[in-house]
Inverse folding.
C-alpha cells in the first residue's frame, strides 16, 4: 500500500493491496475517484503538482502515468526489476524512480513531458534520461 497528498493538499490518494487508487477530497474526505490500475499491490504513487496526473508502480514491474480525472493511462513503461518509490519533481516535469535488482539500488530520472499529437490533443511521454542519480545497497 502507498499514499500521497497533492502539493496543494486538496487531494489524498491511497493505493491499495488489490491495485486500486482511491482519491479523496481533503476538504470533505469524500471519495471523488477510484481506479483499478494493477492486479497486485501498489507499492508507490505520487500526484503531479498540478493535480492532473498521478504516477504509480507496483509488483507488476510497470511504471504508469494516469489522468486523475478519469483514470486513463497517459503513458507507461515496463521495468525489468521491481521499482519504487516513485515521485514527481516540484515542477512536474521529472519523475524519480528508484529501482532495485536485489544487489544495488539505482535511482533513475524519467522525463515526463506533454507534446501535441496530430489531433492537437496533448500526449504524455516518458523519455528515459540515461543518468543514474544514486547507487548503493
Amino acid at each position: 500500500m502507498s499514499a500521497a497528498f497533492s502539493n496543494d493538499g486538496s487531494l489524498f490518494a491511497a493505493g491499495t493491496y488489490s491495485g486500486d487508487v482511491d482519491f479523496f477530497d481533503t476538504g470533505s474526505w469524500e471519495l471523488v475517484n477510484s481506479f483499478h490500475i494493477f492486479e497486485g499491490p501498489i507499492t508507490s504513487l505520487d500526484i503531479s503538482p498540478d493535480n492532473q496526473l498521478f504516477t504509480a508502480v507496483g509488483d507488476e514491474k510497470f511504471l504508469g502515468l494516469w489522468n486523475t480525472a478519469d483514470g486513463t493511462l497517459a503513458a507507461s513503461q515496463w521495468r525489468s526489476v521491481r521499482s519504487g518509490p516513485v515521485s514527481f519533481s516540484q515542477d512536474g516535469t521529472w519523475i524519480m524512480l528508484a529501482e532495485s535488482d536485489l544487489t544495488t539500488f539505482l535511482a533513475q530520472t524519467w522525463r515526463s513531458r506533454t507534446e501535441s499529437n496530430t489531433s492537437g490533443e496533448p500526449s504524455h511521454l516518458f523519455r528515459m534520461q540515461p543518468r543514474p542519480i544514486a547507487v548503493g545497497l
